[in-house]
Amino acid sequence: MFSKKDLKGKCAIVTSYVPSIANIKGEESGEGVTEKQDKYEIYRQMLADWFNEAPEIAINKVEDFEKAVKQKFIKEPGQMKLLIVVDKLLTGFDAPPATFLYIDKQMRDHGLFQAICRVNRLDGDDKEFGYIIDYKDLFKKLEGAVQDYASEALSGFDKEDVAGLLEDRLEKARERLETSLEAIRALCEGVEPPKDDQAFFRYFSSKDPGDADQLRANEPQRLTLYKLTAALIRSYANLANEMPEAGYSDVEAASIKAEVIYFETLRNQIKIHSGDAIDMKQYEPAMRHLIDTYIQAEDSVKVSAFDDLSLIQLIVERGSKALDSLPEGLRKSETAVAETIENNVRKLILDENPINPKYYEKMSQLLDALILQRKQGAMDYQKYLAEIVELTKKAKLGPNSSAYPSSLDTPGKKALFDNLFLMEGLALDVDAAIRGKLQDDWRNYTIRTRAAKQLIRGAISGYKTPAEPEGEGGTSHSHEGSEGFLPEDVDTLTEKILELVKNHLEY
Predict the structure, then answer these.
(1) Positive or negative, the Cα torsion across 349, 353, 356, 358?
(2) Which residues, including other chains, have CB under 8 Å from residue 380's CB and lie 6 or more apart?
(3) Domain limits at 379?
(4) ∠ CA(188), CA(189), CA(190), 5° rounding?
């Protein structure tokens, strides 16, 4: 029955039964399929499907089958969702992902204790407790079992040994919900009155829009907010359809629902305002490569629309119209919109700075000037939007190829040019010195990194520096932009360029 539904290929039977032709000898009566024949055929087909072999071959692999499905249940729970077990896996079987235990046989004492332990292990943040579905009423009334283990199903154990083993699901879920609410309320206590959207943005994001230090300083409490909100949503979801049964009045239930929605909306707005929202679009090429390389199917299907774009990417693609996609709490305030864009651009600049420090230093200065003009009221809102949208595109798309000599045809060469005092020849010399000559995985091995450093230093050292004026041992090279003069000593410059090269995957 299960194999004909969504669990096909993701469920298995594990029992002491071993299918053999001897099991059905003499069962053929002409009156239809007997229970033994039915059981034999179910096992035969299950083994054939698992091993993708003819039934007569697969039927001899019961032991291999049991071992394989147990490992999949433990290590790949998404691929083995249900095990139907008879007198198996009660001892010596540890599977933290197991969340539900359905009991449909008489059990007591040690056997029942062991069965309960199968779902009693935590497994990351998503599993806070296991569920036991008791079809045989083994625990009488659950409340009685919680109150006094010794006099009920677990009479063979001391009360201390099993304390906390079983708890009322609704009672525990209510406790977790209220704990989650208290935690997130306490986190927000520090928000200044009147605790409106702007106050929350100042507290969790930055008081001064685009301030990199404030964004960094407030990051721990933002991450705490995200984590507590996720915990609140999970704990509420466990009770959402049973609030009256958990003891909440209709008014209380409505109030809690509104509060959960409020914090979820707040989290999403702060993620956008601070620039923490993840741009899934940037992963599309890599995901497409993985899908095309490793996933095969008879018929191609659309796996994902890859529509989860960040505010930055939306601005690049849609200009100021992208602001229409902002949550209402941000969109209704021109100041909130401006601060949100500024924080997002600042975070982008910080993230991208290692690949071209000089270029993104210039972007940072342009952003500072634009923020100052906005605060001083030196331009109207529409002009500001046009300017910030243009800056956003420059920061996101990186250096414009038309602004560079044609010989600088890769991002790495452009970055070398920008950070080597706009000296085209020197940039090309460094590129030629390392391109194709760096050892495999050179970034992760000290000796190989040193070798890379020597290659870079060798390319730089032929140029004049302040310590080597022409005529006193320096070598003069005539290069576009600076005639070969380096305003920095070779060792310092070599270290900077080494870090730059590390951040470019083309090397």
Answers:
(1) positive
(2) none
(3) 287-294+306-398
(4) 90
Residue 275 is predicted with a pLDDT of 83
Greater model confidence, 305 or 467? 467
Average pLDDT, the chain: 81
* Vertex 332 angle, CA 328 and 336, to 5°: 100
| Confidence category of residue 131, pLDDT binned at 50, 70, 90 | confident
CA distance 364 to 350: 9
How many Å apart are CA 217 and CA 65, to the nearest integer?
Answer: 54
| Residues 155 and 212 grouped into a single domain | no
Same domain? For 36 and 119 the reply is yes
Q: Which of 167, 193, 220 is the last residue of a domain?
A: 167
**DSSP state letters, 450-495:** HHHHHHHHHHHTTSB-TTS-BTTTB-----TTTTTB-SS-HHHHHH
User: From CA 6, how far away is CA 17, in angstroms rounded?
Assistant: 25
301 inside domain? no
Number of domains forming the structure of the chain: 4
Whole-model pTM: value is 0.51
With beta carbons less than 8 A apart as the criterion, state whether 420 and 488 touch: no
73 plus 149 within the same structural domain: yes
* Domain assignment present for 404: no
Answer yes or no: are the C-beta atoms of 205 and 184 closer than 8 Å: no
Say whether 129 sits in a helix, a strand or coil.
coil
Query: If you average pLDDT over residues 412-426, what whole number do you get?
Result: 93
Average of pLDDT values for 162-175? 74
What size, in residues, is the chain? 507
Peptide bond between residue 96 and the one before it cis (omega within 30 degrees of 0): no
DSSP secondary structure letter of residue 485: B
What are the beta bridge partners of residue 83?
12
Highest mean pLDDT among 208-222, 294-308, 476-490, 491-505: 491-505
Provide φ and ψ at 356, rounded to 5°: -165, 75
Residue 147: other Cβ atoms inside 10 A = 10
